[in-house]
Write a structure and sequence with these properties.
Strand order of the largest sheet: 3-4-5-6
Helix content: under 10%
Largest sheet: 4 strands, antiparallel
Number of helices: 0
Structural class: mainly beta
Radius of gyration: 22 Å
Length: 221
């Protein structure tokens, strides 16, 4: 099931008539259009297009004639989500794994310059709810040692306003395994492969234990 050739076409919404082929994207292996276009609220003749054409999920700014204006996000990381616009529609609020491949954090990105500002910096998984006016966001955060926190941020400054809720640890009264996250090198001697090692309570490093090895090959995770 080849899926290696994408055409972005423009049609007349009133008549259904084809107007123009805006651009094409080809890859020997796979082209993966998973996200709809996001039009700029203050300029409906420009839209944000998701693509992996440089090897990572990134955001590109196009106009409705098919011209690429800029690549908004760049680097060895992937954009996970667009939450919306902030600061008079000059900025995007997004989720990305820019700091490490295993952390999903919230950023403010200037559409014109591509400058990224980290908003939620704690290691772990972050998700955001953006206010209708884009002035505030609620960060829903969890990690291996934080059950759940809801934190309010102001998008213009990127600063924390208050912690709205911190959940209690539902496993606090249980004797739990020890969890360690680390890296080991791939066969090339350079690439970091991330692992999670879970050892039982009262683990004795001098003993041998049966082990379960679970590998998920991606490519999405």
């Amino acid at each position: 099931r080849e899926q290696n050739h994408l055409q972005m076409r423009r049609y007349n919404a009133a008549t259904g008539k084809f107007e123009k082929l805006l651009f094409e994207e080809k890859n020997d292996r796979y082209v993966e259009p998973q996200h709809p276009l996001t039009f700029l609220p203050n300029d409906p003749e420009k839209f944000i297009y998701w693509s992996r054409k440089d090897g990572f999920w990134h955001l590109y700014l196009y106009n409705i004639d098919g011209k690429q204006i800029s690549q908004i996000t760049k680097g060895d990381f992937e954009v996970q989500e667009i939450y919306g616009f902030a600061n008079k529609n000059q900025d995007l609020i997004i989720n990305a794994n820019k700091e490490t491949p295993i952390d999903f954090t919230i950023y403010k990105v200037n559409i014109a310059s591509g400058n990224m500002t980290l908003i939620s910096g704690n290691s772990g998984k972050h998700d955001a709810i953006l206010s209708n006016d884009g002035e505030y966001l609620v960060d829903s955060y969890e990690s291996t040692n934080v059950p759940r926190e809801y934190v309010l941020y102001q998008t213009s400054t990127g600063k924390k306003v208050s912690t709205l809720l911190t959940a209690e640890n539902p496993l606090a009264d249980f004797k739990m395994p020890t969890l360690k996250i680390g890296t080991l090198k791939a066969d090339d001697g350079k690439t970091d492969l991330y692992y999670r090692l879970i050892t039982p309570p009262d683990f004795d490093p001098n003993k041998k234990y049966p082990a379960i090895v679970y590998v998920y090959g991606g490519p999405h995770a």
